Amino acid sequence: VINESQKQQLESVSYSSRYALGLFYEASTRIDVPWAAQYITNNPCIRFISIDNKKRNIESSEIGPSVVVHTTVTFGSEHLDSDPAEVQQLILSHLERIVPSLPKPASVKCQKWRYSQVTKAVPNCPGQMILHTQPLLICGGDGFTHSKFDGCIDSAMSLAEAVKSHL
Asked: What is the top-level taxon of the source organism (predicted)?
């Protein structure tokens, strides 16, 4: 379906890797920190922490709070093929040093995010690539722009224009 040049362009895309850790609490749990989210600059493991219900301004007596942690790109790359249980423990130990007041969660989920953010987008294809015209097959996304909200919007607009020109 795709030609060799397109294949090479798609294969040239590169992504950073990281881990995301979710901590889930019982409904009655209070997480006593004065912020909803923190960007961490001085830790080799953790880059971002969010108290999800605070960030979304949601209070519920039936649903407990959750904490989301993203690791640094360097940590993600260094531990990409490590045992997930060991990675989880490493992240938790760093988190405990950053936020020692966190209560013990009811459950924890550690997720490897192999393709986190685009570090090198498809060259010379701003927003999309038409792979085939009959039938129309177009691909797009942040791999054709950059991994921020406006990059996704740019790709969506480019995709819409490409489809429009083939109607």
From this structure: Eukaryota
State the pTM of this model.
0.78
Q: Provide the phi-psi class of 151: left if phi over 0, else alpha when psi is between -120 and 50, else beta.
A: alpha
Element (H, E) at 10: helix 4-11
Q: Does 95 lie in the same domain as 32?
A: yes
Size of the chain in residues? 167
Residues 100, 36, single domain; the answer is yes
Q: Is residue 9 a part of any domain in this protein?
A: no
- In single-letter form, the type of residue at position 20 comes to A
Q: Tens digits of per-residue pLDDT, 97-120? A: 999 999 999 999 999 988 888 999
Q: What CA–CA distance (Å, rounded) separates 125 from 29? A: 48
Cα 37 from chain centroid (whole Å): 15
